[in-house]
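anyone seen this seq b4? input:
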Amino acid sequence: MTVISSAGNQALNTLVTTTKSLTAVSSAASQQQASTAQSAAVIIGQTDTTSPVYTITKPVLVWERSSSDLMSSKLASNFSNAGNASRFAGLGAALLERFTTDGSSYSQSVIKQTSASQATAAANVAARSQLHTKADNQINLSIKTASGARVDITLGSGDDGLGVQVNVSKGTLSDADRKALAGLAEGFQKAIDGLTAQPPKLDLSGLTKFDSSVLSSVDLHATLGTTHTQTLDFHADANTRSVKSTGIAGTVDISVDMSKRALLGTENQQKQALNSYLKQINSAGNRGNADDSLMTMFKEAFTALNSNYGDTATTYKSRGSEPVYFSLTKTDKNMMTGLADFTASVTQTPVSSTNPMRPDETDTFSYQVSQASTITGTNTQDRNITQKQQSHLVASYHESLTPGLKLNLTSDRNSQNYLYYQIDDTAESTTSVQYHKGALVSASVDQSATNSTHIQKYVKGALESDITTPEITSKTTDLLGKLQSAWENNAPRMSFRDYLDHQTLPDLSGMVLMESDPAVLKNH
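predicted toks r here
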């Protein structure tokens, strides 16, 4: 395949020499060029004001710049493949690994020209700009360094082009900056590979593992496809993490507030809480008949954003014009989940076509879960801590009367044999801790879980039964009483305050975790 530079008009003999020197470095590209080397006739004007005119009978490749470097070789190899997974394979990692040896900006693209109307300098510039800014499949990674520099990395792919770009602005990169950027290479590529997989995945954990003293923030944005578009918006810095992803299956939306680091627990405590939440997310997905791939994405993102927190703290600075500084103890943390505060939701795309006879019976799934903590008071000696966890599941779906039989509802009444489920569940856990003059005077957790199951049974289109089953459980646990019992049994000769400060305490963090199943909560 002939490779033609679009950089301007040249004499015909110069073009022939240049064309020969720009033979693609990869074997794939070389084969393409060889197969079409005689397919293009070129007529070039002799002045700068006249655009070159190409007569093309077979496609040719136009490179943005000399294609003799390793990145261009990777582009040539990937461009010969179809599908985003193959097109973007290894590109993200390669662009970040480049910072180990080079801290400058970079831009490269390859465009396939299939008609004479495309073969103008203006058309090449427009196509190249489209690849770098508004391609059908676009991935953008933006990183800010603590020193103020900004790095923007763009990958763009379309039917007739593939391009990459690195833009370094607002400063130069130090050796530490470049090392930190290269350290994100694997995480960036895993995120790309996940997004381009079928079904998509949210593998974002590698983008949360950065030193915030070197890199101040990381943002990843992606738009893939034009018919069933998959989008992603991810952000991470020292105080916040968030991700929102929307696709054909539905939307995942998670935000984590890491500003209250004084409430973060031990690694084991965080793992315990994370596993508890994942178990309840699984339960909600099963109970609400959710799409498996969507729930997998939700769990992947939830895990990634609630892992790799980094350093914890013991002092919390309250917000306000006159902030108060609170010092929290191991006793306080022992009665918390150990996780950062968050809000998380997953919403499945509603389906109204399941039952053509009753279009108002929509298949839906929506689940929200959150944790919010507050620390108030006049000083450390008189402080109040409240941590509230909540969840809400709303779902509806159709099920065959015969287990294992695929449901096929039509306008024929003989097909109208099914169960229609409507689910509405809520759960809550609120932990309250109070200190007065430095003494722990109150500590408890109030928990509740409510499940509502509404089932309508239809036989040959007629409503045969309509049953709603509620389940409600609530309980209160005296955490202070459990600490006092442990003190009396293990160290009665020392004061209760000294016991809290110096002895190993019973682990109460598991007792405060929210439970969404009323039966489990009742027996817990």
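Residues 157 and 386 are 49 Å apart (CA to CA). Confidence is low (pLDDT under 50) at residues 1-51. kinda curious what u guys think
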